[in-house]
Amino acid sequence: MTSWLLEFSNLHYTYPGGQKSVLNGVSLGIPEGKKCALLGRNGCGKSTLFLHANGILQPQQGQVSWRGNPFVYKRSFLQEMTQKVGLVFQDPEHQLIASTVSEDISYGLFNRKLPPEVIREKVGNILETFGMTELAEVPIHHLSLGQKRRLAVAGVMVLEPELLLLDEPTAYLDRYQTKNLLRELDHIHQNGTTVLMATHDMDIAFEWAEWICVMDGGRLIFAGEPQEALAQREMLESLHLGMPLLAEVWEVLPESLKRDMGGIPRSVEELKKKLEAKQEVASV
Ligand SMILES: Nc1ncnc2c1ncn2[C@@H]1O[C@H](COP(=O)(O)OP(=O)(O)OP(=O)(O)O)[C@@H](O)[C@H]1O
């Protein structure tokens, strides 16, 4: 049986004064140690679900559990959850509060009342990990959007969460910045953090994630491995998510080539490698 690090069970939520319920019985488990993607069209409730992951919002019905233990909506428990679950908002402007890069990263550590020398060391290490050492004293309003996004992730990661949730972290990033961010997330994941990313981008989800969830209308409608998601063409197209580009390319390849290549490659690099290997065999 899969062990869920965080589990949402039958959550219902309507915003105060809202006309419509946003979460309509969503049940979704985040498997420990995996890179996960949450897909769904605009307004289906992804961000609202994220706000339930560390108790910022409390469900009106249903339950959130951490390692099988239901959330208790009391200050001490919620403080513990904000440490275990790091949340990176869609808009970094909502997250960055201090005036310079290093001050911003220090903020959460100061709140934890850590000794100044420990804070200095942690900030220095995280700046190095994120390649931002030279930006330490730069005012936040001088940063590019890509740098702000990296800083928002760094500011959460310095608190060493066990689960990192990112709300559309690649939105508005160019290909180069997107690749860098995904590489950083891989690094974070290799160091033992479970990662869940909300995205509209099926190509990123297919290439990067090991577990894919799809929401619609405040409910979960699919959860499974990326290859299983490919069997859901009709559902993915009806939600305007579409199929990954590589799956579309795969469709038009000759059957003999597909047989030799095994399954659909997960990335362009994997496709190239498989094609080159095939050419080498053919030229022997
Ligand atoms: N603070 C709020 N007050 C009232 N309604 C809200 C609030 N935040 C979000 N909503 C509404 O809740 C619904 C779900 O929004 P949410 O941001 O959770 O969806 P989403 O799937 O993350 O969308 P997107 O992909 O566009 O970011 C939308 O109809 C939105 O207008």
In words, what does this structure look like?
With 284 residues, this protein is α/β, with parallel strands linked by helices. The protein folds into 2 domains: 4-96 and 161-242, 3-Layer(aba) Sandwich (Rossmann fold), CATH 3.40.50; 253-284. It contains 12 helices and 10 strands. The strands form 2 sheets. A 6-stranded mixed β-sheet has the order 6-7-8-3-9-10. A 4-stranded antiparallel β-sheet has the order 2-1-4-5, with no helix packed on it. Strand 7, helix 6 (175-190) and strand 8 (194-199) form a beta-alpha-beta unit. The longest helix has 16 residues, at 175-190. The radius of gyration is 21 Å and the shape is globular. The N and C termini lie far apart (46 Å). The relative contact order is 0.14. Bound molecules: adenosine-5'-triphosphate. Adenosine-5'-triphosphate is lined by residues 15, 18, 22, 40, 42-48.
Tags for this entry?
about 280 residues, alpha/beta, Rossmann fold, 2 domains, 4-stranded antiparallel beta sheet, 12 helices, binds adenosine-5'-triphosphate
